[in-house]
C-alpha cells in the first residue's frame, strides 16, 4: 500500500463506519483467519464491523475467536442483506473478483459503500477505492498484519487476533513449506506467537481433529489416484457417490490434492470432486517449479489463483472432465517437466 492509500484509509476509519467484511465462498483458513483478525481490530478501535460469509466454513475452523459472530448469507439471509445495504465501508478479503462470492455477488454490486480489497491472488478486478494486492505474499492474513502495521497499530494486536492470523498463515503456506513463505513471514509469525498465538494448539485443532469418515474418504481418494509418470502428473477423482458413502462434510477434502506432490518425480497434482447439487466438478490444482497452474486453470477450467496453487471447475461429467484434462497434458509436457 502506498502513502496515499494509507492516508485515505486512516481518514475513513477516523469517523464511525458501518463495516462489512467479506470472505470468498467456501472460505478456507486464510479467508476466515483474515476476516476475523480484521474484525477484531476494527471493533476494538470502536468501529461497527460485521463479517458476512457467502456460506458456512468448515468445522475445523470454528474454534477461532469470534467465529460464532459470522453471518452466513445462506442461512441468515435477511440480516446479511441488511448489513450489506447499510454498510458504508466494505472490506473484501482473500479474493479479487466479485464472482468469487457466489449468490452474494449482486448484493455487493448494488452496495453503495466504498470498497477496500486485501488479497494476494493474481489479476485483481478494479472495483475497490483502495486495492492492497500483492501476489508475492504468503497469505491474506500476512497482508492483514501488514495492513495493521501500516496504520501504526501493531501494538494493538491482541491474542485473539494473533490466533486468527497465525491460523490463516499456517494453512495457506502448507505449514510454512510453500515457496511463498519468506523470512518476513517467519518474523510475522514469531511476533504473533509473542502476542499470544498458541501455535501448537492451532496446528492440532486444524490438522488433528479428523473424523473416522474423513480418513476413510482420504483412503478412497488415494486409492483413486492416477499417476501419469510421462507427464509428472498425479490426479484424484471423487464422485458424489463416494462422498456420500463416506459421509462427506464441508472441508473434508481440504489438502487431499497435495498428496500427489509427495510422490517422487510428480510436479503437477490435481483433484476432481463431483458436486451434483451445483452441477459442477470442483477442481484444485497444485504444482512445483515453473509450471503455472494459475494460467492452466484460467485457460481451460474457468478458474485461477496462484502460480503453484489454483482452482477451477467443469460443467461436464466427471468422466468427461477427466478425459479432457488428460487430453491437455501432451501440450504441457515440457512445461510440467521443467524444474
TrEMBL record:
<dbReference type="InterPro" id="IPR003156">
    <property type="entry name" value="DHHA1_dom"/>
</dbReference>
<protein>
    <submittedName>
        <fullName>Phosphoesterase RecJ domain-containing protein</fullName>
    </submittedName>
</protein>
<dbReference type="Pfam" id="PF01368">
    <property type="entry name" value="DHH"/>
</dbReference>
<feature type="domain" description="DDH">
    <location>
        <begin position="18"/>
        <end position="169"/>
    </location>
</feature>
<dbReference type="GO" id="GO:0003676">
    <property type="term" value="F:nucleic acid binding"/>
</dbReference>
<feature type="domain" description="DHHA1">
    <location>
        <begin position="246"/>
        <end position="316"/>
    </location>
</feature>
<dbReference type="InterPro" id="IPR051319">
    <property type="entry name" value="Oligoribo/pAp-PDE_c-di-AMP_PDE"/>
</dbReference>
<dbReference type="Pfam" id="PF02272">
    <property type="entry name" value="DHHA1"/>
</dbReference>
<dbReference type="InterPro" id="IPR038763">
    <property type="entry name" value="DHH_sf"/>
</dbReference>
<dbReference type="InterPro" id="IPR001667">
    <property type="entry name" value="DDH_dom"/>
</dbReference>
Amino acid at each position: 500500500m502506498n502513502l496515499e492509500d494509507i492516508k485515505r484509509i486512516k481518514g475513513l476509519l477516523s469517523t464511525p463506519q458501518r463495516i462489512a467484511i467479506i470472505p470468498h465462498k467456501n472460505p478456507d483458513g486464510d479467508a476466515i483467519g483474515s476476516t476475523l483478525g480484521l474484525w477484531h481490530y476494527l471493533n476494538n478501535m470502536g468501529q461497527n464491523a460485521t463479517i458476512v460469509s457467502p456460506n458456512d466454513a468448515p468445522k475445523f475452523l470454528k474454534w477461532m475467536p469470534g467465529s460464532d459472530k459470522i453471518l452466513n448469507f445462506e442461512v441468515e439471509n435477511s440480516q446479511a442483506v441488511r448489513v450489506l445495504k447499510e454498510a458504508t465501508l466494505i472490506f473484501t478479503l482473500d479474493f479479487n473478483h466479485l464472482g468469487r462470492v457466489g449468490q452474494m455477488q449482486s448484493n455487493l454490486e448494488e452496495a453503495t459503500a466504498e470498497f477496500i480489497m486485501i488479497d494476494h491472488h493474481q489479476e485483481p478486478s478494479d472495483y475497490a477505492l483502495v486495492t492492497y494486492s500483492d501476489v508475492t505474499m504468503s497469505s491474506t492474513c500476512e497482508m492483514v498484519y501488514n495492513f495493521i502495521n501500516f496504520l501504526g497499530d501493531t501494538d494493538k494486536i491482541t491474542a485473539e487476533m494473533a490466533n486468527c492470523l497465525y491460523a490463516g498463515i499456517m494453512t495457506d503456506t502448507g505449514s510454512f513449506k510453500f515457496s511463498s513463505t519468506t523470512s518476513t513471514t517467519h518474523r510475522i509469525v514469531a511476533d504473533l506467537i509473542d502476542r499470544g498465538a498458541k501455535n501448537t494448539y492451532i496446528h492440532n485443532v486444524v490438522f488433528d481433529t479428523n473424523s473416522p469418515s474423513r480418513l476413510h474418504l482420504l483412503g478412497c481418494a488415494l486409492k483413486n489416484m492416477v499417476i501419469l509418470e510421462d507427464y509428472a502428473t498425479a490426479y484424484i477423482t471423487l464422485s458424489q457417490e463416494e462422498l456420500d458413502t463416506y459421509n462427506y462434510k464441508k472441508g473434508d477434502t481440504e489438502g487431499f490434492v497435495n498428496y500427489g506432490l509427495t510422490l517422487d518425480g510428480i510436479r503437477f497434482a490435481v483433484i476432481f470432486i463431483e458436486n451434483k447439487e451445483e452441477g459442477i466438478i470442483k477442481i484444485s490444482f497444485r504444482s512445483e517449479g515453473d509450471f503455472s497452474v494459475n494460467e492452466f486453470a484460467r485457460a481451460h477450467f474457468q478458474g485461477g489463483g496462484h502460480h503453484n496453487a489454483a482452482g477451477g471447475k467443469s460443467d461436464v461429467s466427471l468422466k468427461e472432465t477427466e478425459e479432457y484434462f488428460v487430453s491437455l497434458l501432451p501440450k504441457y509436457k515440457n512445461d510440467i517437466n521443467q524444474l
